[in-house]
Design goal:
By secondary structure, this protein is an all-alpha fold. Helix content is 77%, strand content 2%. Strands 1-2 form a two-stranded antiparallel sheet. It is elongated and about 90 Å long.
Length: 204
């Protein structure tokens, strides 16, 4: 054991003597940290902008809606547009949020295939936005919920809550399945790389 340790020490010492550290290594590390902080600030500003925009839209909607002795009356299409905007905001915010915490998981799963892991993340992003776009188009309303009134009704509010809960449920289920399936795919890709080429013996 001592002989092995001495041989490793000599080998690593020789490599260290002949290789000098990169002169800009510290600058690159500092730059990477600064870039990460800038991305975090950008994401916070985007989230804050969406929140402020949604609050302003709601305030304007309430202030412009007609009132009478029965109270506030809101046209049905205002709630429909607001719901679609909320769905778009959720898609824009939730996608980068999932991707941010999924990169480390994908890198760990595809540690033998880094390029495959990056491609997998890109493909899941495409699927994610396709699901959101299809859901919005499938559930969009183009006519009032009632023929008797064009104002917002309790039925429409219930449908809006179901739409918002539905997309969150769909994304949650698919994301859970992705977490379970990704290690299996990573294992299969790793085994595929270790298998000898067809027609070969696999011996040196």
């Amino acid at each position: 054991m001592a002989d092995l340790e001495s041989r490793l020490h000599e080998a690593l010492g020789d490599v260290g003597d002949h290789n000098q550290p990169s002169p800009d290594l510290f600058a690159r590390v500092v730059g990477s940290i600064a870039d990460d902080r800038a991305r975090r600030r950008h994401h916070r500003r985007v989230a804050l902008a969406w929140a402020v925009g949604a609050a302003v839209a709601v305030a304007l909607t309430i202030s412009l809606a007609p009132r009478d002795e029965e109270g506030l009356h809101m046209p049905w299409w205002i709630l429909e547009i607001a719901t679609d905007l909320v769905l778009v905001a959720i898609a824009v915010w939730l996608g980068p949020f999932i991707k941010r915490f999924g990169r480390a998981y994908a890198a760990d799963v595809f540690h033998d295939n880094p390029l495959t892991g990056k491609s997998y993340i890109v493909l899941t992003d495409i699927v994610y936005y396709l699901i959101f776009a299809a859901y919005i188009l499938f559930t969009i309303r183009t006519e009032p919920p009632s023929l008797l009134t064009h104002d917002v009704t309790a039925t429409q509010v219930k449908e809006v809550a179901a739409r918002l809960g539905g997309i969150l449920l769909i994304i949650g289920v698919l994301h859970g399945l992705n977490i379970v399936i990704m290690p299996v795919l990573g294992r299969l890709f790793s085994l595929n790389r270790r298998l000898p080429p067809r027609g070969g013996t696999g011996l040196g």
